[in-house]
Amino acid sequence: MKIVGDYTLIKPLGKGSFGETFLTQKNNDSTPLATKVLERKKVDKNSIKKYLDNEIQILKELNHPNIVKFYDFLASNSNYYLIMEFCNGGDLTGCLEKYKKKYNETFSVEIVQYLMRQIINAFVYIHGK
User: How many domains does the chain have?
Assistant: First the structure.
């Protein structure tokens, strides 16, 4: 476990090209969060800091049930920390794989329509911003 500001990074959830994501808790709060830890040297070296700043600015303005909520941004000498809503359902590919294993078939048309409505609603909301 690692403490970053008011947050405790509990355990790793996954890795990406610029860093790692951790299950996180804000001190004195049991609500699970996710923290994307980006290595500063990789972000700065690849000149994507301006894109990160843009992403943070956009995420701060979004509030929609089908978009992961952004809570906080912290920086240290070695890392950037994006504190976000924890979604424990996994990604869409993983959900499809679990569904196929359990039911031995792909998503039904009704499930795909339901998922597409959620995605389109989020896109419409973002486009309106």
Answer: 2
